[in-house]
Predict the structure.
Amino acid sequence: MKFSPLQLARYQYNPKLPGILRNGISEICVTSGGPTTSVADQEKIAALFPNTYGKNEIIFQKGQNTAPAKKQVVGVILSGGQAPGGHNVVCGLYDALKATNPENELYGFKGGPSGLIEDSYIVFDDEYINLFRNTGGFDIIGSGRTKLETKEQFAIVAEVCKKHGITAIVIIGGDDSNTNAGVLAEYMAANNTGVQVIGCPKTIDGDLKNEDIECSFGFDTATKTYSEIIGNIQRDANSAKKYWHFVKVMGRSASHVALECALQTQPNICLVGEEVAAKKMSLAQIADYIADSVAARAERGWNFGVAIIPEGIVEFVPEFSVLIKEINELLAGEKTAQFNALPSWTEKYAFIEAGLTKESMAVFAILPQSIQQQLFLERDPHGNVQVSLIESEKLFSELVKNNLAARKAAGTYNGKFSALHHFLGYEGRCAFPSNFDADYCYSLGYNACMLIQYGCNGYLSKVSNLSKPAEEWVAGGMPITKMMNIERRNGEDKPVIRKALVELDGAPFKYFAEHRAEWALETCFVYPGAIQYFGPSEVCDLTTRTLALEKA
Ligand code: FBP
């Protein structure tokens, strides 16, 4: 294997732990933050989780470690999309286990939750773990999107644990995976398996956060990576002065990533899905809003600019959501085959026109043909439209182009509009973790081991006070049931961790809203540059603007 100089240098980096976890293991004791209740639907959640509901918050402090000195065999899985820092969660967990008792063992189940079901694993040792310290990716054991949610699956997991003498499982995942971790914890307790379950908050989307979890890991590095690229594009735009760049950034539903990138780079436009939904904006209104900026800048002779589009935007546009629902119904069951058998797009178009309501047809008609075809041709195995594949950056640039053509015809616009498109997603998910993510993730893993030592079950590893230097971070754990409420999923009431969307009365959005009119007209671009791993702390240890504003 060949290693880059940066990878070799990163192996030597010592992630910073919260001050409290820097004491020797024997000097970490527990204090209780008091009993907890779920954020909503308390009675229902309490009834569903009789063994794990209402437990105390855990906070670690300096003092005599009173945890029973029992040997631990722990299993770990990575679940869902990659996020920078996942390797460090595993490394922190491994190091804490070995520091507690060199006999402790860590099993890594391969390929995500399915590895646990299929009993596919490796047992970590120093040599293997050392290859992954402070590196991006999830390739240490791989990841997957299988959901652990049925009683049958839980029974298999309990069997696998029994077979290897596993005493605890750590699930590193997003809101869904940690919801399932909570349900699995309840199952393990109800069935007296003696297996504890601990979760760790992961996702670049940033939508697993609440009053306890200040941010999910990976968001920091991914948004810094995207912001570097957006900054570079902005500098190119400002140099060549001839293109409008439409940049779509990942974030399946919430717009945290887009908003954070906008706060870091100050583009001319950034759409925020949650605002679009709140204002019930139509596609035409959004296009008009962007075109206003293009036209105003053109009047100053600036036929260039940058617009950030969140990946999940179209689902927030009410008329578009209705259109998607109608298309899904139009092609339900055998009708897909009927549609596919039509020989030409003209005939397909007539079929669509006959099947959609007048309102949805009006929305469909203004879409560029490439998007229209995408909606009907690229479908998931259930026959549904694959919304995440819609090239919304192209959709909006095309709608803006048409809007500007109408303005030109009316004599109100006389600029030039030439658009380029980018999608920033996978580029950011496996980057070398920033110092923040390297430190935060290592701390989450180390802390998870402490929670296991102290017998916790159904807890999320919690490291907080993150806008302060790591020395001042607070370490502990929060019962997963505290973050739950009841939501309707696939026609059923389910206990789930509430997904955090962008809050329109939150400080990050408010800051953006106060400045965006100026950014839309002027050229206020900021060029953040690449993540720095070595150098002054004020450059290398910066947190996100979102966290800084939320905690200001
Ligand atoms: P998680 O919620 O599992 O962390 O993944 C989020 C994400 O990165 C989204 O931003 C993106 O839409 C999606 O994963 C892409 O998934 P896939 O890797 O399966 O293409």
The domain at 17-218+433-489 is CATH 3.40.50.450 (Rossmann fold).
